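User: Can you recover a sequence for this backbone? Please restate the input before giving your answer.

Assistant: Of course. Working from this structure:
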């Protein structure tokens, strides 16, 4: 966790819960986190069981170029990441998990920026689970808010145990999510005779094959 918004909201949430798995939704006072409101959101589960925005701050809506209320949360990400995002948020709803996601957002005009997202559980009862969260931009480029974010790819995920490490388990690294797109690179000299190679996740694939 690197962004002040994530750190501040976590400390507020942790203080409210006071040892419980999650604080009640009614205990959250917007005035207590007024400096974060433009970047915060609340998610709920709709009648289809999907995580949707119940509330979203003005800066978030401007960043995505739309009113986010009622909008599907997983749909903010590229299709290949949507199922993972959905599972993570349902973990927040059902298991009271705390989730930290870093991702790269891509604008309509092809610009990009890094973001950090913190998702925290709220106790709304079995029938009304809630998630309180904040999205912080790693940088504040001039175009953010004018050129809307239309796509996103996950960089890393951390599921946090707040009982053991209030500062998000600094001793545990985030889980990197490698790309599935093959990357061309020059192999080291010791295997140069084998030709060029491609890296796919943790595998190295060499061009060529058995000759008849």
């Amino acid at each position: 966790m690197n962004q002040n918004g994530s750190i501040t909201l976590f400390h507020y949430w942790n203080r409210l819960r006071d040892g419980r798995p999650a604080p009640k939704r009614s205990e959250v006072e917007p005035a207590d986190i007024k400096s974060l409101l433009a970047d915060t959101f609340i998610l709920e589960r709709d009648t289809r069981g999907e995580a949707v925005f119940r509330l979203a701050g003005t800066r978030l809506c401007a960043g995505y170029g739309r009113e986010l209320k009622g909008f599907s949360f997983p749909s903010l990400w590229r299709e290949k990441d949507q199922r993972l995002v959905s599972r993570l948020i349902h973990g927040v709803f059902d298991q009271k998990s705390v989730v930290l996601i870093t991702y790269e957002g891509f604008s309509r005009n092809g610009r990009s920026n890094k973001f950090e997202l913190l998702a925290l559980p709220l106790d709304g009862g079995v029938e009304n689970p809630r998630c309180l969260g904040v999205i912080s931009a790693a940088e504040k480029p001039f175009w953010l808010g004018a050129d809307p974010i239309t796509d996103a790819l996950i960089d890393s995920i951390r599921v946090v145990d707040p009982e053991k490490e209030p500062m998000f388990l600094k001793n545990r690294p985030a889980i990197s999510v490698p790309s599935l797109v093959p990357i061309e690179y020059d192999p080291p000299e010791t295997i140069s005779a084998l030709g060029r190679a491609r890296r796919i996740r943790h595998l190295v694939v060499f061009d060529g094959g058995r000759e008849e």
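That completes the design. Strands lie at 40-45, 51-56, 98-107, 112-122, 130-137, 149-160, 175-176, 183-185, 197-200, 203-206.
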